[in-house]
Amino acid sequence: MEDSKKIQKIIENLKLQMQEQKCIYRWLEDGTIDKVVCKFNAPIELEELQKIYQKYPNIKLPESYIAFLKCSNGAQLYESLTCKASTICTIYSLQEAFVHRENLHQSILFQNEDMKDLLPILLLEDIGEIFLDTKVSDGEEYLLYPFPEDKRFPYSFADWLGKFVVAQGNEYWNW
After folding, report:
1. 130 by DSSP, 3-state: which?
2. What is the percent of the chain with per-residue pLDDT over 90, rounded to a whole number?
3. What string of DSSP letters covers 24-36?
4. Mean predicted confidence (pLDDT) in 78-87
5. Which ranges constitute the DSSP H helices of the chain?
6. Dihedral sign, Cα of residue 173, residue 166, residue 69, residue 34
7. What residues are paired with 128 via a beta bridge?
8. Mean pLDDT over all residues of the chain?
9. Are 42 and 73 in contact (CB under 8 A)?
10. Could you give the CA distance from residue 48 to residue 54 in angstroms, rounded to a whole number?
11. How far apart are CA 78 and CA 162, in angstroms?
12. How far is Cα of residue 86 from the mean position of the Cα atoms in its chain?
């Protein structure tokens, strides 16, 4: 399935589940269940995307990630209704991602030349940020979390998101 259609279907189905049930029952690895909600931002405006490309002409954003932004410019996935201030996954808006990138570039860890091309796109609770390598083309492993090692996911953002939703926000990559 094409990435943009896959992302649309994932978001539509999460929204439908939320509309019908008012929440999602999320199974945790320890066998407990948590009531959660998912929230989606409005799609990115094409003018905003163009401004980013003008400001950062050397940045490559994978089509799969752009497809997500065109459906929802950021999201909160699996926000707990039972535990305040607990959101399993916060996908940054594109604007927030670049703000986080600029802040990270002030840190000593990101002075390394390899780190300068990374764009933080989402935050996983208790795990940390996942990044896009903006110098890597579609079809290559561009999605990673760099600490403590550079672990790259061997699939697109749409595939990562699909697996994450099927795993109900659990760390399927560690299974």
Report:
1. strand
2. 63
3. EEEE-TTS-EEEE
4. 85
5. 3-21, 46-55, 63-71, 94-104, 157-166
6. negative
7. 124
8. 89
9. yes
10. 10
11. 14
12. 16
